[in-house]
Fold this protein.
Amino acid sequence: MRGIFIFLLVTTIAFGQKKTVEKIDSVAYYIKLADIYKQKNNYKFAIANSNLAYKYATASNDVLNKSIALTSLGTIYFELKKIPDAKDAFIKSINELNTLPLTSQLALNYYKLGLCAMTLEEYTLAEKYFSKAEKIYRTLKIENTQLLLLQKGILYNAKGKKIEAAQIFNELISKPDDEDSYNTKAEALYQLGSIEYNKNRSNLALNYLNRALALNTSSNNNIEQRIKILFLLSMTNDNLLNTSLAHTYLKEHVLLRDSLLKLNNKRLAANDYISLKESERIDLFEQLSKENETQQKTNKFAKLISVLAIALISILSLLSLSLYKNNIIRTQSNKLLQEKNSELEIAKEKAEKASQARADFLSTVSHELRTPLNAINGITHLLIEENPKESQVHYLNSLKFSGNYLITFINEILEINRIESNNIEIEKIDFKLKDLLNNIQNSLKELAKVNNNKFILDIDENVPNVVIGDPTKMSQIFLNLINNALKFTKNGEVKVIVELFGIKENSATIHFSVMDTGIGIAKDKQETIFDSFAQGSIEINRKFGGTGLGLAIVKKLIDLLGGEIKLESELGKGSTFYFDLAFEISENQVDREKEEILLLDTDIDTMLEGKNVLIVEDNKINQMITKKMVEKKGMITKIIDNGEDAIEEIRNNNVYDLILMDVHLPSINGTIATREIRKFNKSLPVIALTAISLNENRDILLGFGMDDVITKPFDINTFYTVISKVLSNSKSVA
């Protein structure tokens, strides 16, 4: 009566607050109600409420709550020993959960499905389900291994793998005691007892079973387990002739078993079970009826769609028929276009190959010309230094001028090829923009005097002093632009203007202009003036000379730096080249010129005199020129013509202050030789001598351990300055 009263009270409250509960969470409410009835051993209402939870979850298409309701239903059926029903509920729950991201709920269902299989003695299936549960727990990094480990041991025992099973059970009973593990340990001890009993080792079996009973009694919530333990204790004591104790355990076993049978009958009577299953069948029938109605509506809609589709197909067929000829024409046109496209691709490939062949040819020619030019320039310099006759000075200076002109021409060809082949990198270093422009102005003062020009540098005082960029490429740009302006202007003015356009987020936009009052450029030539080898006209080329590469280099360098050069010019009135570039403003106020100024103030002759130099060079003329040039400053030399001997010479003789290493040597080249020397001598200065090619650059050579680079043909001042600088740095490091 009391149970019925509580049920009516709870039901009344539930219906009285129906709207509120449904609004909050009807599924959670009914599952909680099912748990309450299960605790009161009223499994009929527990099942009914689990089914209600499933209905509400289905109505709202809540996949997670559907699976939770099915798990609750399966658990109740499992406790009632309705294993097929429990198994069916767990499988349905798993199917729902498989549509969601991985959760521990899925692992729990596989575990419970494995328990169902164990009860039905379907051991292979049980092992499969337990493995899936274990894999999910491991993926989710959840520690839940004891129950799975126990079931694995029971599986092994059932399959006759007694040793493996015993190992697992011993592992479980060796874990620290806590209330949550009592049932697991009691089951493991029982299983060990059963193994020993079957081996006729009754004393050992008795020990395990007594410990299992003690743990089971402590937990006091697993009657089925106690019934098993009591029965096996009775059998074991009987084997040991402890008849009285065996009888006591057997009697307790029978009492508990009968009590459990009565409890199960009370939980759910046979008529109640039949009634519940009948209710489920009715619900299923109603669901199928609704689905059938929905299907009929769908079929009607499908018929309507079919009619419309037929009409649409008819219209489309007519359209297709009318477009058929057009498609044939289009296909023929496409085929023709594809053929033309293939021809264009072939032409493009040929053009690219031709362009690459041109670049390779110019690079090779430029590189190969440097070696004989080095001999011409070097010998010319040596002859001038040896006090020639007055009648010979003019010829030697003309020869020197021609050599320098060829060097400039070759350098410009190499530079344009390097840019076009994308074999060029942009530096980002601190440099003083104002000092760079002032130095260029100082270096070109003599050229300005030749044509009686005023050379003015106008720099906005707001321009940042130190910026981050590529000073080398900035120098190339201004040297080319100013050289052109001074060359094409006579008795006029060349002005370089530098203005700050604005600063935004530590980036300064600077406007540069190079203005002259020279001959100007015709309108029809202004579009092509930046092309390679373009000089406006043949007459200008004959009158002023030059390669026609300077402006092409300038344009490509400015493009690389992120700017765009523009031109305003009028014949007879001069030209203005202008562009904008953005620079990061440096936080470091470094004086990059200080070292160079100190070096220029040093007496180079005194620094070089008496120094021992090893010249590694295979070309006889270059050997002679380099030897003469260094000996002229009082240096002591030795010549070696290959890399292998140079390595051994340095290894065996510690007398050298410097190595002048040609890059291109027979057998191993100069870079490899330097790298080998650096393995045993880190401090000896090495300067690379190279007729630098398209695929070489300063950074690559320095990466092999060289301290600096001197390019062929030698510029005399650069030659001695670089040697002095390297020796000075080596001395300061030492």
Q: What stands out?
A: The chain has a mean pLDDT of 79.
